[in-house]
């Protein structure tokens, strides 16, 4: 199985995991919608892919989401895979961190992907097929020091995805929670510090992390296998992620509740 002939929309597609996903999916024959803030960087990624729509917008600009969804859907005749990849990390102690740093990270890493997914759902559900992928982090499984805002947002988006999967799984949609460990990107350079400024330096673990192309190859293969929780990590990070993995039996049980009419019973009880 491949994504050949399918339409994939990737946010944060201008660099790192997003850019690597774009190139790998294009190599499989997917049509791509590439979103991010930097049009020039998106153009550079698109130049290495085949069939692309470049759709730049700020993911936290809620007014931009509806027209972006309409444009992407009409261009591709639908979206088969949405990858919520845009995000920002943190490197600061909680006691020193300004509250607006929390607001910014939660807006980018939690509210923005929820908003885009919610805008697409009414179009995807009637088709009875499609995938929604959330790029979380091992820090969305295990609380990591100096990342309290990041962990809060990544734990939150994982919970949203789990609940969404339970609601739409029996309708034909797949929801993938993807938990990368250290991948060799600019994530730590772009992380926010205590006052909200860009950190500007990387971590040794990130510098020595998994190559983006290798990481996304694992992600794509796992999505095609239908895996719901996809942990892409090595060493201690892999062990941490596996220790907090949700058992498939539990995910099946929660999904079965919806398939047996849970929502209908809840709505009847409210009347």
Keywords:
10 helices; alpha/beta; single chain; 271 residues; Rossmann fold
How are the SSEs placed, and which strands pair?
Blueprint: E1 7-10, H1 16-27, E2 31-34, H2 39-46, E3 52-54, H3 62-76, E4 81-84, H4 99-124, E5 131-135, H5 148-168, E6 174-180, H6 204-207, H7 212-224, E7 229-232, H8 235-243, H9 248-259, H10 262-270
Parallel strand pairs: 1-2, 1-4, 2-3, 4-5, 5-6, 6-7
Report the radius of gyration as a whole number of Å: 18 Å
Q: What is the succession of H and E elements?
A: EHEHEHEHEHEHHEHHH
Give the mean pLDDT.
Answer: 96
Q: How would you classify the quaternary structure?
A: single chain
Shape verdict:
globular
CATH topology name: Rossmann fold
**N-C termini distance:** 46 Å
Query: What would CATH call the architecture?
Result: 3-Layer(aba) Sandwich
User: What's the CATH H-level superfamily name?
Assistant: NAD(P)-binding Rossmann-like Domain
**Strand order within the widest sheet?**
3-2-1-4-5-6-7
Count of folded domains: 1
What's the CATH first level?
A: Alpha Beta
Give a brief outline of the structure.
This protein has 271 residues and is of the alpha/beta class.
Structure overview:
By secondary structure, this protein is α/β, with parallel strands linked by helices. It has a single domain, classed as Rossmann fold (3-Layer(aba) Sandwich), CATH 3.40.50.720. Helix content is 48%, strand content 11%. The protein has ten helices and seven strands. α1 (16-27) crosses α7, α3 (62-76) packs parallel to α4 and α4 runs parallel beside α5 (148-168). The longest helix has 26 residues, at 99-124. The model has no long low-confidence stretch (mean pLDDT 96).
């Amino acid at each position: 199985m491949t994504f050949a002939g399918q339409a994939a929309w990737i946010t944060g597609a201008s660099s790192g995991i997003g850019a690597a996903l774009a190139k790998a999916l294009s190599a499989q024959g997917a049509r791509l919608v590439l979103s991010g803030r930097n049009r020039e960087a998106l153009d550079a990624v698109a130049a290495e892919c085949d069939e692309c729509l470049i759709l730049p917008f700020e993911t936290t600009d809620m007014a931009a989401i509806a027209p972006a969804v309409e444009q992407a859907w009409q261009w591709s005749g639908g979206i088969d895979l949405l990858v919520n990849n845009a995000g920002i990390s943190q490197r600061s102690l909680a006691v020193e961190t300004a509250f607006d740093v929390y607001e910014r990270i939660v807006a980018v890493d939690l509210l923005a992907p929820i908003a885009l997914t919610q805008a697409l759902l009414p179009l995807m559900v009637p088709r009875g097929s499609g995938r929604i992928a959330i790029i979380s982090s091992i820090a969305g499984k295990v609380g990591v020091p100096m990342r309290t805002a990041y962990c809060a947002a990544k734990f939150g988006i994982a919970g949203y995805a789990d609940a969404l999967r339970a609601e739409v799984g029996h309708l034909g949609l797949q929801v993938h929670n993807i938990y990368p460990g250290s991948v060799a990107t600019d994530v730590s350079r772009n992380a926010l510090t205590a006052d909200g400024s860009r950190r500007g330096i990387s971590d040794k673990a990130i510098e020595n992390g998994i190559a983006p192309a290798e990481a996304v190859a694992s992600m794509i293969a796992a999505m095609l296998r239908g895996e719901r929780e996809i942990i892409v990590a090595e060493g201690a990070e892999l062990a941490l992620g596996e220790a907090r993995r949700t058992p498939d039996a539990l995910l099946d049980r929660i999904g079965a509740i919806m398939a047996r009419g849970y929502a209908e019973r809840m709505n009847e009880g409210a009347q």
